[in-house]
Amino acid sequence: MGMEKKAALTSIGVVVCYMGKLPEWFPLWVRSCCENATIDFLLYTDQELEGLPDNIITHRMTLNRLQKRFSQILGFACSLEAPYKLCDYKVLYGEAFQEDLKDYDFWGHCDLDMVFGDLRKFITEDILKTYDRIFEVGHLSLYRNCSRINRLYREEGALFPWHKVFREKNYCGFDEHTGMTRICEINQVRTYRKVVCADIDPHYRAFYMMDEDSVNGEMAVKNYTHQIFVWDQGKTWQICLDESGRLQQREVSYIHFMRKFPVSMETCLTQRRYCITYKEFIP
Fold first, then answer.
1. Residue 7, class by beta-carbon neighbours within 10 Å (0-12 exposed, 13-18 middle, 19+ buried)?
2. CA 90, 91, 95: angle at the middle one, nearest 5?
3. Pairing relation of β-strands 218-219 and 227-232?
4. What is the per-residue burial (b if ≥16 Cβ within 10 Å, else e) of 147-168?
5. Residue range 55-78, pLDDT digits in tens
6. What gap in Å lies between CA 117 and CA 231, rounded to an integer?
7. Cβ neighbours around 86 below 10 Å, total
8. pTM for the model
């Protein structure tokens, strides 16, 4: 796991649970994890995987075994009939995988439909020392690894109480706005909300930038009619034409694409950079 090289930094272990065939762009996700060598990614999957970088730690797990583990934590038989329901269970990872996470200062959860930039540039040591929850989105959130924070999902404040969410077969958004965000607000959990990332709404053709640090009710990040996003040797960028027609670029923490793209995988993996447009990956 290489904990020695991370001794000077607050340690972070990010959990992913993914059942079934891995997406076509999985090697690009792996490559972006590799560039974030001071963060570990714990991948629980029913797939056989080899040749991954040292900071991706795999655990063989089936959906049925996950259901049994979650039920044991919750104290009742929970509902987990389909992998998509796992989104609600992200908030349990701190308890459910505590044996694997015990050596980390923070644990988190993320998705696979994303590529990371330089995460430590956006999740600084000052932020990690000051806040107990970092970001409020399902595709990447971090929690301080302590008993109170690991059991936050049981506190008052959620739109749907936890014991009902985990008996419901449909996704309830408990990892985000209906659950943990409301719980953290009501219980005054120190939360860092400013997530500067490229988030792609699958219902629209255009990409847009998402930044939770809003000003007067408006998003602080500016979007442009003509913009693309680029992964370049471990960094992710917004590149656009501004109102004057000048080329501008801004570094972002990651790109979350939430849709299926055709991927020139071999070409993308051998190039130092590639673009992600609204319809494809371009070497």
1. exposed
2. 105
3. unpaired
4. eebbebbebebbebebeebbee
5. 999 999 999 999 999 999 999 999
6. 7
7. 23
8. 0.91
Identify the bridge partners of residue 235 per DSSP, sorted by sequence position: 232
Q: How confident is the model at residue 129 (pLDDT cuts 50, 70, 90)?
A: very high
Task: List 148's β-bridge partners, or say none.
Answer: none
Radius of gyration of the chain (CA): 19
CB 85 within 8 A of CB 79: yes
Pick the closest to residue 114 from 18, 249, 181 (CA basis).
Answer: 18
Question: Which structure tokens are listed for 245?
Answer: 């027609």
Q: How far is CA 126 from the centre of its chain?
A: 20
E strand residue ranges, 169-217: 191-192, 197-199, 208-210, 214-215
Q: Tokens in use for 10? A: 């607050």
Which residue is listed with tokens 């939430």? 258
Q: Give the separation between CA 231 and CA 251, rounded to whole angstroms.
A: 10
Q: Which amino acid is at 172?
A: C
Q: What is the pLDDT of residues 13-63, one digit of tens each?
A: 999 999 999 998 899 999 999 999 999 999 999 999 999 999 999 999 999
